[in-house]
Amino acid sequence: MFHMNYKKVMLLKRSDMKKLNIFLCCALFLIFSCKSIDYRIVRAREEYKKDLRLVKRHVDGKTIEKVIELNKSVRNLERLSSIKSHMEEGFENSIMPTKGNYIDWQQWYKDNKNIIFWNEEHNRIESLDLKSLPKDFKK
């Protein structure tokens, strides 16, 4: 009789293990599927802040090792926010972002960080076009 009870206990443990394995697989699937969505948002925010930091270094008068990186950052910020940088007359209309530009781009980020995402296909930050959403769309 003891032998029979031992088998029942082992069967219960095996069935519990199967349920646990199914639960863990579902949980992992949900975690990884959510992470892929979050990745695009996190990446966009990191890239935008990286561009802002480079502009801040310039505005603070710190040395920028690669001016081309500053130009790239400014172009990214301009394209995304539609806020144009100050241009100086001189060598090929040099881009010279001002403290005002930095503040405007920083404020744009605070106001719009929830609608930016990383576009893998174009390898750049983009924002949702809220004007193209259906009229009955609720935020």
Instruction: Identify the overall geometry.
Output: elongated
Helix content: 55-70%
User: What's the arrangement of strands in the largest beta sheet?
Assistant: 1-2
How many extended strands? 2
Cα-to-Cα separation, first versus last residue: 64 Å
Q: Poorly predicted ranges (pLDDT <50, ≥5 residues)?
A: none
Backbone structural class: mainly alpha
Main β sheet profile = 2 strands, antiparallel
Mean pLDDT, all residues: 80
For the CA atoms, what is the radius of gyration? 26 Å
Following the backbone from N to C, one meets helices and strands in this order, namely HHHEE
Supply the number of helical segments. Answer: 3
In terms of DSSP E residues, the strand content is 5-15%
Outline:
By secondary structure, this protein is mainly alpha-helical.
What does this molecule look like?
Strand 1 (116-119) and strand 2 (124-127) form a beta hairpin. By secondary structure, the protein is mainly alpha-helical. It has a two-stranded antiparallel ribbon. It has helices spanning 2-59, 67-81, 99-112, and strands spanning 116-119, 124-127. It is elongated. The protein has a domain at 39-128. Helix 1 (2-59) packs across helix 2 (67-81) and helix 1 (2-59) runs antiparallel to helix 3 (99-112).
